[in-house]
Amino acid sequence: MSSLKCSAYLFAVSILMFCPGKTLAQKETFKWPEGKKIALSLSFDDARGSQATTGIPFLNQYNVKGTFYLVPSAAEKQLEGWKKAVASGQEIGNHSINHPCSGNFPWARPNALEGYTLEKMKAELVAANDQIYKMLGVKPEVFAYPCGGTFVGRGVNTKSYVPVVAELFLTGRGWLDEGPNDPQFGDFAQLTGMEMDGKDFEQVLAMIEQTRQNGQWLVLAGHEIGESGSQTTRLSMLKKLIEYAQDPKNGIWLAPVGTVAKYVKANRK
């Protein structure tokens, strides 16, 4: 063995001898309640009508609580349904007033993020909270970024509005993300949201297994709730998913975004 390799070997051995807990700590996973292996949250955006008329009654059959990010003007169209959602313990979140997205979407051009300022965004999110409180008597603690966009402005004047969300809310959730959340490291204001619209149970199960590898937190995101159509989370998939999650042998804590976030915040190292 060369002197260089020998020195490296001795250094590695010394680390293990004097820091025996270091390697073990790196392999430890977050301790979820009641010995669960992962956390799973079901979340839905926009206050689509099918959520109030179909989705929430369906979740209530299984005593499952989800997170619903509301646009107030859309929620008003199914106000009685959303009042029932609150009464049954569903979590109500904020999804802005105007659903601002990039103007690269032609339909979003009137409320393009490129034309927003941080001050305008903050005012809109505060106003949405106020409107939701007047309608439903709850102040949202969680937020979902419309279209997953986290910026305002354009070019050299572009700014992140993640700090605004961090100031106003416990969590901010993204959209079309590629992996689950690390409870020890993840930024509450930038939670990942993985799409469940249009997927069958086997596709969602693959996400769960990805989450299980490191004991993480999977936040699923959807829109319509039914069996067909664009941006629709299928009831047939939800039924299989809920039954799988509620089977104790699968070690899944199924809870709303805010509930999981509060637990993580209290138990992080």
Write up what this structure looks like:
One of its GO terms (biological process) is carbohydrate metabolic process. GO terms for molecular function: hydrolase activity, acting on carbon-nitrogen (but not peptide) bonds. InterPro entries: Glyco_hydro/deAcase_b/a-brl, NODB_dom, Polysacc_deacetylase_ArnD. It comes from Dyadobacter luticola. The structure is a single chain. This protein has about 270 residues and is an alpha/beta fold. It has a single domain (about 35-265), classed as Glycoside hydrolase/deacetylase (TIM Barrel, Alpha-Beta Barrel), CATH 3.20.20.370. The chain has ten helices and twelve strands. The protein has helices spanning about 5-20, 20-25, 50-60, 70-75, 80-85, 120-135, 160-170, 200-210, 235-245, 255-265; strands at about 40-45, 65-70, 90-95, 140-145, 150, 160, 170-175, 195, 215-220, 225, 230-235, 250-255. Strand 8 (about 195), helix 8 (about 200-210) and strand 9 form a beta-alpha-beta unit. Helix 1 (about 5-20) crosses helix 2 (about 20-25). The protein is globular. Mean pLDDT is about 90; it is low at about 1-25.
